[in-house]
């Protein structure tokens, strides 16, 4: 076969040439290079298509699109002015949206004294959502069909399509995230050039489906919205950007921008006055700052095992809290600690947030730099569920009786989400006599449905998952609330 080769002149004087067999910047090489973001997309196409079925196309489209933010008003800055200026741009206070929904739900309840109101609301909501979804999926299918040919020639997704699946090992479509099913998820193993896939699928076996233990579940009907928390968002389909935050008279910023999904783990914590709150994996610090805006915790401990990332928390605090060192650190209200969350001990907390390192799905689809799907980070990626489980187990041990732990990720992976909660509870059950209740927030989360699409008990066993969608492009955010009862 004719071999195409190129020469590179290495010396101007001697006019020597080096003969490349494969020139590194040749178009055919560049075209074939699979970047970490491509790898991430291939991985998600393989895995999530089978988990979320027809919803996957819409989630995928949203995650590849523009992420939506909310603005958390800084109560320690020029808050009133900030709220007024945001309202002038058409931003809405989330508290108002939630309470409008609550009012509507109550009204429906009254009208339907036989208490079928919830079913009715859910059904109407689902019907509406389905109509919108069908339209979006139709559009997504059309654009995917146009985009496909070139890149998919060498994608894993296309090779998997051709590959034979061991159908006994695929997730049961009827109950896609049943514990047994997610533990058994195992893609076809005979895939050339994808060696990392094999150890990864082996890794899923650690979630032994044979082990049975009882888990207490309890429905929760209320998701209290702290009085002092003011969070602004744009309504469905409004893709406006918030202006950059501004410094006020005390030189601190007036609001903090964060993914809307990130507020739910903090709301789920149900912070109360006087709480001692540990943010076990806190950097860059958005959720710690959000917890402080409620005015409830007496002490906030922002921990992170990475010193450089902990310095980012310090910097966020300094930008949002006036006289941070004097008023917050020296008074002991905020502590910044640089420890491995797996071995924090001795202290007791009433509230712990375990917002673990994960595959950061949205980020992994956009940034090649430091991407968790880089070949050099395979081992780290495969070890994530183990690390996540150890962090959660330690939080469950640390929290006081009656206290609350919220476990959260920004991944759609059932392994890193319900899977980790499952193994952590199993370990606690085997090793201690502690008891926990998993809170089913589905009824309480109804009030958030004008802002978020949340997958609940139909798709998940323990927690809740904010699903990104083009009209409200937040998340993914998984969160699970656990309360220690013994
Ligand atoms: C998803 S980020 C946390 C985001 C943060 N909660 C927020 O909302 O801004 C996960 C963090 O966990 C930290 N981390 C990783 N391993 C850890 C460990 N063993 N103990 C404590 N923190 C850890 C990482 O350095 C990273 O900053």
Automatic annotation (TrEMBL):
Domain SAM-dependent MTase RsmB/NOP-type: 178-485
GO cellular component term of the entry, any: mitochondrial large ribosomal subunit
Catalytic activity: a cytidine in rRNA + S-adenosyl-L-methionine = a 5-methylcytidine in rRNA + S-adenosyl-L-homocysteine + H(+)
Active site, UniProt feature: 410
Localization per Swiss-Prot or TrEMBL: Mitochondrion
Coiled-coil regions listed: 107-141
GO MF term list: RNA binding; RNA methyltransferase activity
Binding site for S-adenosyl-L-methionine: 281-287, 304, 355
Highest taxon of source: Eukaryota
GO biological process, one term: rRNA methylation
Record bears the keyword rRNA processing: yes
Major subcellular site: mitochondrion
InterPro entries tied to this protein: MeTrfase_RsmB-F_NOP2_cat (IPR049560), MeTrfase_RsmB-F_NOP2_dom (IPR001678), RCMT (IPR023267), SAM-dependent_MTases_sf (IPR029063)
Keyword terms, alphabetized: Coiled coil, Methyltransferase, Mitochondrion, RNA-binding, rRNA processing, S-adenosyl-L-methionine, Transferase, Transit peptide
Family: Belongs to the class I-like SAM-binding methyltransferase superfamily. RsmB/NOP family.
Annotated protein name in UniProt: NOL1/NOP2/Sun domain family member 4
Organism of derivation: Acanthoscelides obtectus (Bean weevil)
């Amino acid at each position: 076969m004719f071999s195409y080769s190129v020469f590179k002149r290495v010396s101007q004087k001697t006019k020597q040439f080096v003969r490349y067999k494969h020139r590194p910047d040749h178009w055919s090489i560049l075209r074939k290079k699979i970047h970490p973001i491509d790898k991430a997309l291939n991985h998600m196409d393989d895995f999530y298509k089978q988990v979320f079925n027809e919803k996957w196309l819409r989630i995928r489209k949203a995650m590849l699109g523009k992420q939506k933010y909310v603005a958390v008003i800084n109560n320690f800055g020029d808050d009133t002015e900030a709220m007024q200026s945001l309202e002038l741009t058409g931003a809405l206070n989330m508290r108002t949206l939630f309470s409008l929904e609550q009012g509507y739900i109550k009204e429906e309840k009254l009208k339907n004294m036989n208490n079928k109101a919830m079913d009715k609301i859910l059904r109407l909501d689902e019907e509406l959502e389905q109509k919108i979804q069908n339209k979006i999926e139709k559009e997504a299918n059309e654009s995917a069909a146009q985009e496909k040919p070139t890149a998919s020639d060498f994608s894993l997704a296309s090779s998997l399509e051709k590959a034979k699946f061991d159908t006994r090992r695929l997730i049961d479509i009827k109950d896609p995230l049943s514990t047994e099913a997610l533990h058994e998820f195992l893609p076809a193993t005979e895939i050339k050039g994808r060696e990392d896939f094999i150890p990864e699928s082996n890794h899923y076996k650690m979630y032994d489906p044979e082990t049975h233990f009882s888990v207490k579940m309890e429905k929760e009907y209320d998701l209290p919205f702290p009085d002092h928390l003011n969070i602004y968002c744009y309504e469905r389909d409004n893709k406006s950007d918030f202006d950059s935050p501004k410094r006020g008279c005390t030189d601190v910023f007036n609001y903090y921008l964060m993914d809307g999904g990130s507020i739910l783990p903090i709301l789920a914590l149900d912070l109360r006055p006087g709480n001692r709150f540990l943010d076990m994996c806190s950097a860059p610090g958005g959720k710690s700052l959000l917890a402080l805006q409620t005015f409830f915790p007496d002490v906030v401990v922002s921990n992170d095992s990475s010193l450089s990332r902990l310095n980012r928390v310090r910097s966020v605090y300094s930008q949002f809290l006036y006289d941070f060192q004097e008023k917050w650190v020296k008074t002991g209200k905020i502590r910044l600690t640089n420890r491995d969350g797996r071995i924090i001990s001795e202290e007791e907390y009433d509230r712990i947030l375990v917002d673990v390192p994960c595959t950061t799905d949205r980020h992994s689809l956009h940034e090649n730099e430091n991407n968790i799907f880089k070949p050099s980070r395979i081992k780290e990626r495969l070890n994530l569920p183990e690390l996540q489980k150890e962090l959660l187990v330690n939080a469950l041990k640390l929290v006081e009786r009656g206290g609350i732990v919220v476990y959260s990720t920004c991944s759609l992976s059932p392994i890193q989400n319900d899977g980790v909660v499952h193994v952590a509870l199993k370990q606690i059950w085997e090793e201690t006599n502690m008891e926990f209740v998993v809170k089913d927030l589905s009824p309480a989360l109804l009030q958030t449905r004008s802002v978020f699409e949340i997958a609940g008990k139909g798709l998940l066993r323990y927690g809740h998952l904010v699903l990104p969608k083009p009209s409200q492009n937040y998340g993914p955010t998984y969160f699970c609330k656990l309360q220690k009862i013994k």
